[in-house]
Design goal:
This protein is of the alpha/beta class. It contains 14 helices and 17 strands. 35% of the residues lie in helices and 25% in strands. The strands form 2 sheets. Strands 7, 8, 9, 10, 11, 12, 13, 14, 15, 16 and 17 form an 11-stranded mixed β-sheet that branches. A 6-stranded parallel β-sheet has the order 3-2-1-4-5-6, sandwiched between helices. A hairpin with a 7-residue loop joins β14 and β15. α1 crosses α12 and α4 runs parallel beside α5. The longest helix has 20 residues. The chain is elongated, with a radius of gyration of 24 Å.
């Protein structure tokens, strides 16, 4: 086949990055595919704004259906984001026999089952490298180099906005709101950055990773998620005194037939390899049963890295089309998955170590009351920091625990909220001990 024709729906940041790499690197792409990859049509409601790329105006349209219904287009690329319209376009494209590339993490996390089934039903391929990690080739690694392995542990920093905010709070002591405002001003965050800072964006990405690891979609709402908006420079400072830093982590582990999947702020040792992932960068640390530990690191977002990931999917499908292969592998890379759908165990069943910061009145006997409640709930104290007076009549008491059951922690903290010796709600942060990850 001389040409592989591509239609792109969405000419925003990622769409422009995709067009840029397809045009600027057309020679090397053609060399690697063996056929020319041609942009036949680009659809967007706004076809007048300057994207900084020279594009023939004849390629532009405001009608996505022109792409979906064009019999000469082999690959449809959905880059509009959102849920309803994106899902409609993808399903119609598949029904028309088009292979589909998407970067839409929210859509795959929340409606992946329907879309994966449609790809199977219509005998087309679905590719989504850009949905997780920007330009980091994570999905391709799961489908390729890691495909002989059971992935036992995953720990990811999957949201660049939150990571930038925490980096500024850690390195410069900025209050949360000031760090958020800076991220917005620099274009690293939406205004407001709700889905980034509340853990939803990272949870969408974790859902995709878990799904492709298991070969079946995970129920998105079963993934526990908690954001970074309650963290203070004080907590970050105390974490450092204990030898830890705080990151928004996406964690997934399998224990037999039990799955743990969660997104939450967590303390990790300062010498853990993930502790050095700063700014807007993303990283995924994982362990396979045969390959052992792997680390993937790079730009997790942005026009050029994400456009590169979209283009990599187009190249993969173009090679397939050139050789007359209708469909190479299922969307989740398992021909015979062992289950229909997966769900994570409740967060109450988690067993880990914890950080607590109590705001206590400045008088004797407070620590004994706190430790008594913790002991009654099988929570053992590992270390304590008690500072001098912070606010008038109030002192911070900070502690790390040994491993405890989350349900016991919830009950203990609920009782403490009613203690007259505490002046504020207790801050709780989960602690990743670092035994599953390498150190620098």
């Amino acid at each position: 086949m001389q040409h592989i024709n591509v239609g792109i729906i969405g000419f925003g940041t990622v769409g422009a990055g995709t067009v840029e790499v397809l045009l600027k690197n057309s020679d090397i792409i053609s060399s690697r595919v063996g056929s020319e990859v041609v942009i036949r049509k680009i659809a967007d409601l706004d076809i007048d704004s300057d994207r900084g790329i020279s594009v023939d105006s004849a390629l532009l349209t405001r009608e996505a259906m022109e792409i979906i219904e064009d019999p000469d287009i082999h690959v449809v690329v959905e880059l509009i984001g959102g849920l309803d319209k994106a899902k409609e376009y993808i399903l119609k494209a598949m029904k028309n026999g088009k292979h589909v590339v998407t970067a839409n993490k929210a859509l795959l996390a929340e409606f992946g089952d329907e879309i994966y089934q449609a790809a199977e039903e219509y005998g087309v391929s679905l590719a989504f490298e850009a949905s997780v990690g920007g330009g980091i080739p994570i999905i391709g690694s799961f489908k390729g180099g890691l495909s002989a392995n059971r992935i036992q542990n995953m720990m990811g920093i999957l949201n660049g906005t939150s990571n930038y905010i925490l980096t500024r709070m850690t390195g410069d002591g900025l209050p949360y709101q000031e760090a958020v405002e800076e991220a917005i001003a620099l274009g690293y965050a939406e205004d407001p950055p709700t889905l980034d800072v509340d853990g939803t964006d990272a949870a969408h990405k974790l859902a995709i990773l878990v799904s492709i690891s298991l070969g079946v979609p995970i129920t998105f709402n079963s993934i526990y998620r908690e954001g970074i908006d309650k963290l203070t420079p004080e907590d970050i400072r105390f974490a450092g005194e204990f030898g830890y830093c705080i990151k928004l982590l996406a964690v997934a582990r399998t224990r037999g037939n039990r799955l743990e999947a969660r997104v939450n702020p967590a303390m990790i040792p300062l010498n853990h390899i993930m502790a050095s992932v700063n700014g807007v960068y993303n990283a995924l640390y994982l362990e396979g049963d045969f390959v052992g530990p792997n680390l993937y690191y790079g730009m997790g977002a942005g026009r050029r890295p994400t456009g590169s990931a979209v283009a990599s999917d187009i190249i993969s499908l173009a090679r397939q089309i050139r050789h007359g292969i209708k469909k190479l592998i299922p969307p989740l890379a398992h021909v015979h998955p062992q289950a229909r759908e997966a769900s994570a165990r409740p967060i109450e069943e988690l067993r880990t170590a914890y950080y607590f910061r109590f705001s206590a009145v400045d008088k004797p006997g407070v620590l004994s009351k706190i430790s008594g409640i913790l002991g009654d709930h099988r929570i053992s104290i590992a270390s304590v920091i008690q500072k001098g007076r912070d606010l008038k009549g109030s002192v911070p008491i900070v502690m790390l625990t040994h491993e405890a059951l989350e349900s016991d922690v919830i009950k203990a903290l609920s009782l403490m909220d009613n203690l007259d010796v505490l002046t504020d709600r207790t801050m709780m942060i989960r602690v990743e001990q670092g035994e599953e990850g390498p150190t620098e």
